[in-house]
Write a structure and sequence with these properties.
The structure holds three protein chains of three kinds. Chain A is built from 16 helices and eight strands. By secondary structure, chain A is an alpha/beta fold. A four-stranded parallel β-sheet of chain A has the order 2-1-3-4. In chain A, strands 6-5-7-8 form a four-stranded parallel β-sheet, sandwiched between helices. Chain B is built from 19 helices and 34 strands. The chains are: A alpha/beta, B alpha/beta, C alpha/beta. At the B-C interface, helix 4, helix 5, helix 6, helix 18 and helix 19 of B face helix 1, strand 2, helix 2 and helix 3 of C.
Chain lengths: ~375, ~650, ~150
């Protein structure tokens, strides 16, 4: 009789107990699956997970559970207000407790535990990107504390973005300092993969560190840090004013503190990072900055702003293997080429990594992948 | 003489008795001073329950009655009547609400029982001090104002007029007919909408008992049930109604084109216009905002060609005052703003239409003369109809719009009839609940319409693959299949949600109505009085109360009409007896009460230096009572002593 | 051990909006704290300041005055009269040494059963946290030092 399925009500009860309160609201319309970018490249129906979880049927805990890149497009559109991404996180949390998390993730979580970052980077090497040049350290006096994303600190490509950011901030006479070697990962991806206790440990550490340093205003280059600091840290005791770098750039350009004089003659297409756009409603700031760059022509993807397709790097996907033909960034890069763009601009370290990988995979040597701040640095 | 109070505690089946220990309440009440009789009964509102009350009043010589049951808003009139039958003044009755305010909102039986005892004690405390009042009867103005000339208002107006009562119908736009006039066919019978509606429109115009005011707005409403005074602004038409022969030459000659509201902006009308060819009245109006003459002082072409010389450039708005006994609000529904529906491509792709836009496209009097075409004039080879766009969606409207499933089926049928297109319906649930509706759904299945069980997630023109090139692509999960589909089509029709009219808030205030959380006007009782409002004498008809299809709208209009008629035909109406009264010995003549009275019901006598309440104008709000610095005004039935006694008895304080 | 403190809150509400809103909470079977007793008047404009003081004097730990939203008054604007009267009442109550959280004015419409429930639960929790008012005793000896009541 194995082809019959029997509901196990312990499952939805357990999910509700650990916070998945909106599970039962789903009325099976399929808007989430229809919205999900995975279906542009392969079959993945998050509604299936939700339905199975509602009834406690086998399958909700399968491999597909780890597909979700937490891009939030489905949550935005769900007519029933089901917190789909949060449910996925909650279910991952329950599964992770049983030790069933994917192997690659386990290695990442191990590094977070021992090094405070997901890149197996030595904690002592966190400021290595700066080389021999002296950079300002945050000691409580500057206005902003710059919180380096782990991906910027340890990934050589993204490290260039910090150097560009430093150059631009110096040019704009911004009062800032780097939090530096003591900082640990903000924990966004850790949390989204369900490793709640690891997240808690990271958050406690960072909150103690930054409160100890007397931080009032945070400046972050990563939308993931932004989202976590704005939405998760406050109730844990980390209450700072958190600004994303592009918001600061827009203010600097608007107020005239930053003059962009050098032409950057590129045809740029802007990719909305999910955690900057859909999760924090920052759509105009990066575009305003780019429009102010002399010589730069800005074009848009077919689906843009709140409709934008994810790069595929959120929710722990950055560390998981995805076949080339199933990568959203590859799909988007092809669209960018078709539209005649020579530069993909974005404002997120994960997006930079995903697009750089896609560029390599497609052999698009001429295509430039850039953070908004790198373009601004060129324009000074 | 000490009052003799009787307390009757209702079980309301298990509604009360399931939570509140009714016997304990009865026992508690029996011990209070002046309570000479105390009992319980399963259903106090039932016939035997009322008999019990009647018998007890007589047998125990009760002079005050307290019924502990449901909300006074539910059954106070019932029990007042029962008291009157037993010869007791109905204002010597007090109700204790131990259902809505107690048994239904608490789970802890002990806490609920103790609270019920408190509630009954407070009611007894007030009852002890109640005074007999005489209800006053005033004559009713035998005339009804119907606001809105859609099919609901038309039905209501005709029913009332045919019964011999005068009706004033006020319609905002140039013609009556409402949304129904915009439709081509009606579901599920496929009746031609205009064919069944226009005869009724003409009847309205020709009925000796109906005064039709189109292009007009109700500006102010005063008075009370049976005796309202309304101010109606008749906007300047600039066309003399008695001279104009409706020949229509001016409509041809006028050089100024503006988007037609009636055609949902898909076609144009002239600055001098009638909404549609069968408009009632047929005489056009000049839209001052668009008219070239009013803008530049030059043109007057309409005047030149008008043979009967009916153009009046000096026409003015007229404000008329009318007295009516009842008001029927039939202001209809609006539609959700489609510009918030970008996810489904509205406003971005020209071949994405709202439901009402498709109605006009398909209509013989519409922009294409009834040909179903894409914007480039070609016939669509495939059409997607997306259900629940903006309905059943917390991001937009939480309610079901009730008409979309059926009009989507109708659209599918019409597209099948007129074109060779493949038609896809993307739906969550098919809601075909009316007479002949499920049968119509079945018919559509026979006609080969494709049904995909899944809500359309988005519409894009971004093609992946040749079959999608140049098409609109609908992405949706077939939830029955467990597969995400991308369906390339030429045209997308959004079954977009019905919404309250944009000015619903102002209209609600104008007529003293409330609104439910969905924004539609609030009925007095959702089950038993869906056509009445909290304001006596103001009734609701049609989709201004909630989304409705045509049969329901017509039925609702008829219901409102019969309710208004039954009040009007009584000839007299009972008005508030619980009014305010000035106690002359205490009045210091400060006139503060005059300032606070919302109804100007207080006059001041210069000779005696005393204020006086005009009881026939007073509505008993009690604001003057609370304001009077000398406590010289008493509010009958809610006087200071009564309210304070109730507060004193609200809890068992010690 | 004495029984735990249960606040006693008197609600002075209008017939058309708040009383009906409480009815709706009932018909919708919403659940709320059983600590309130409603006293119905036809309009919040009828709420005489003496009613509020009397409730405190009787032993109420909190008083809620509630009526229709501004603009929605069944009697055109009686609720606005209540609103204008309220600051003076608040001041008076403060002078009597009664914490401001014990007196509240709210607009709750006939459609807002959920709002009624929220307000009642919130106020019950707040007053519970403040503890018993026991105003008659306080009034007899004058205002007590903080936390002494």
């Amino acid at each position: 009789m194995s082809h019959f399925a029997t509901p196990m009500m312990e499952v939805p009860e357990m999910i509700a107990e650990v916070g998945g309160k909106t599970l039962d609201l789903c009325y099976q319309c399929g808007t989430c699956s229809g919205t999900c970018p995975w279906n542009l490249v392969r079959d993945f129906r998050v509604r299936d997970i939700i339905t199975r979880a509602q009834l406690g049927l086998e399958g909700y805990e399968g491999e597909d559970l780890w597909m979700c890149a937490t891009c939030n497009a489905c949550v935005d559109r769900c007519p029933q207000g089901v917190e789909i991404v949060d449910l996925v996180r909650t279910i991952r949390m329950l599964i992770a407790e049983t030790g069933a998390a994917p192997k690659t993730l386990r290695a990442v979580l191990g590094s977070v535990q021992s090094n405070g970052n997901p890149w197996s980077g030595e904690p002592s090497a966190r400021m290595a990107w700066a080389g021999a040049d002296p950079v300002p350290a945050f000691d409580g006096t500057p206005e902003y504390a710059y919180f380096t994303c782990c991906t910027q600190a340890y990934d050589p490509r993204n490290a260039k973005v910090i150097r560009a950011a430093a150059k631009v901030m110096d040019a704009g006479c911004v009062s800032y300092g780097f939090v530096g070697g003591g900082e640990w990962c903000c924990g966004d991806a850790v949390r989204k993969t369900g490793a709640q206790s690891s997240f808690q440990r990271l958050a406690d550490h960072n909150i103690n560190l930054m409160n100890g340093l007397g931080v009032k205003k945070m400046l972050v280059p990563s939308p993931h840090c932004l989202n976590t600091f704005r939405k998760e840290y406050p109730e844990l005791g980390g209450k700072w004013e958190v600004t994303h770098l592009v918001e600061l750039l827009r203010d600097l350009v608007r107020s005239g503190r930053l003059a962009m004089k050098t032409a950057v003659p590129v045809k740029a297409i802007y990719h909305d990072p999910c955690y900057l756009g859909r999760n924090n409603d920052i759509y105009d700031a990066p575009r305003d900055v780019l429009r102010g760059v002399p010589g730069l022509q800005l074009i848009e993807f077919a689906r843009t702003r709140d409709e934008a397709v994810c790069c595929g790097g959120g929710g722990g996907r950055l560390w998981m293997e995805t076949p080339v033909n199933e990568r959203f960034a590859v799909l988007k890069l092809k669209e960018a080429v078709a539209k005649g763009a020579d530069t993909v601009v974005t404002a997120c370290p994960y997006c930079i990594s995903m697009f750089e990988d896609a560029k390599t995979a497609l052999g698009l040597d001429q295509m430039q992948i850039a953070d908004v701040v790198e373009i601004v640095a060129q324009a000074l | 003489m000490e009052p003799r109070i009787g307390v009757f505690v209702c079980h309301c089946g298990t509604n009360i008795a399931g939570v509140v220990d009714v016997n304990r309440v009865v026992e508690a009440a029996a011990a209070w001073p002046d309570v000479v009789f105390s009992t319980e009964y399963k259903f106090m509102c039932s016939d035997p329950g009322q008999h019990l009350l009647n018998d007890a009043i007589i047998r125990h010589k009760l002079t005050r009655v307290v019924v502990a049951a449901c909300s006074p808003r539910m059954h106070e009139p019932t029990f007042r009547k029962a008291c009157a039958m037993a010869g007791l003044n109905p204002y010597l009755f007090e109700m204790a609400n131990i259902r809505e305010h107690c048994s239904w909102v608490h789970e802890d039986k002990l806490a609920a029982t103790l609270k019920a005892i408190d509630i009954v004690r407070a009611a007894v405390a007030k009852a002890r001090l109640l005074e007999p009042l005489q209800a006053r009867m005033v004559p009713v103005t035998p005339k009804v104002l119907v606001v809105g000339g859609g099919v609901a208002g038309i039905q209501a107006a005709l029913d009332i007029a045919n019964a011999g009562t005068k009706v004033i119908m006020v319609e905002r736009s140039q013609s009556i007919g409402g949304h129904m006039a915009q439709l081509d066919k009606t579901f599920p019978t496929l009746d031609c909408s205009a064919c069944i509606l226009t005869p009724k429109m003409v009847q309205v115009a020709q009925h000796p008992n109906i005064e039709l005011m189109t292009y007009s707005d109700v500006e102010n409403v005063d008075g009370y049930v049976g005796n309202f005074t309304v101010k109606i602004r008749q906007r300047a038409r600039y066309v003399d109604e008695s001279t104009c022969t409706s020949c229509g030459v001016c409509l041809e000659k006028c050089p100024k084109k503006v988007p037609s509201e009636f055609d949902e902006g898909m076609a144009t009308r002239k600055a001098i216009y009638r909404s549609f060819p069968q408009a009632v009245p047929g005489r056009p109006v000049i839209d001052k905002e668009s008219c070239t003459y009013f803008k530049n002082g030059k043109c007057k072409i309409c005047e030149i060609f008008c043979e009967p010389k009916a153009i009046r450039w000096d026409d003015q708005d007229r404000v008329v005052e009318e007295k009516v006994g009842a008001i029927i609000v039939a202001t209809g529904m609006g539609l959700i703003d489609p510009h918030g529906l970008g996810q489904w491509g509205y406003g971005r792709f020209p071949n994405v239409l709202t439901g009402l836009e498709f109605e006009r496209l398909n209509n013989a009097t519409g922009p294409t003369g009834g040909r179903i075409t894409c914007k480039d004039g070609s016939e669509p080879k495939s059409v997607a109809i997306l259900h629940c766009v903006g309905s059943r969606d917390r991001n937009h409207k939480e309610y079901c719009s009730r008409v979309c499933c059926m009009y989507s089926l109708k659209f599918a049928h019409l597209i099948k009839e007129k074109t060779h297109a493949t038609v896809y319906n993307f739906y969550i649930d098919m809601r075909c609940f009316g007479k002949g509706y499920e049968e119509f759904y079945n018919r559509l299945l026979h006609e080969g319409v494709k049904f995909i069980r899944g809500k359309a997630a988005y519409v894009t023109d971004q093609a992946y693959g040749d079959e999608e090139t140049g098409k609109l692509v609908v992405s949706a999960e077939s939830t029955t299949l467990g597969q995400v589909l991308r369906v390339p089509v030429d045209m997308v029709i959004l079954a977009s949600a019905v919404a309250p009219q944009n000015d619903a808030e102002a209209v609600a205030r104008l007529f003293g109505m409330g609104r439910s959380p969905d924004g539609f006007f609030m009925e007095k009782h959702p089950k038993l009085e869906p056509f009445a409002t909290a304001t006596d004498g103001v009734y609701l008809a049609g989709s201004c109360q909630s989304p409705k299809d045509i049969p329901d709208t017509v039925a609702h209009g008829a219901a409102a009409a019969s309710t208004a008629l039954s009040m009007i035909s009584r000839g007299m109406v009972e008005v508030e007896a619980a009014t305010a009264e000035v106690l002359k010995d205490f009045c210091s003549g400060c006139k503060v009460c005059q300032d606070v009275c919302p109804y100007s019901a207080i006059s001041f006598h210069d000779d005696t230096h005393l204020a006086e309440v005009n009881a026939s104008v007073c509505k008993g709000c009690g604001t003057c009572v609370a304001t009077c610095p000398s406590s010289a005004i008493t509010g009958h039935h809610f006087n200071d002593l009564q309210v304070l006694a109730q507060i004193d008895a609200a809890f068992a304080w010690e | 051990m004495s029984t735990p403190f249960e606040p006693r809150i008197v609600v002075l509400c209008c017939n058309w909006c708040t009383y009906a809103g409480a009815d709706l909470a009932g018909t919708s079977r919403m659940k709320y704290a059983p600590n309130v007793r409603l006293v119905r008047v036809m309009c919040s404009g009828r709420v005489d300041p003496s009613f509020v003081l009397r409730a405190f004097q009787d032993g109420a730990d909190g008083v809620l005055v509630a009526g229709c939203h501004p603009g929605d008054c069944h009697y055109i604007n009686g609720n606005l009269k209540a609103m204008r009267r309220f600051p003076a009442l608040e001041k008076m109550v403060a002078q009597f040494g009664i914490e401001p959280q014990r007196l509240r004015l709210e607009w709750i419409s006939a459609a807002e059963g959920d709002v009624f429930v929220r307000v009642v639960n919130e106020m019950t929790a707040q007053v519970r946290a403040l503890g018993a008012l026991d105003w008659r005793r306080r009034a007899a000896v004058g205002p007590l030092p903080e936390h002494a009541g």
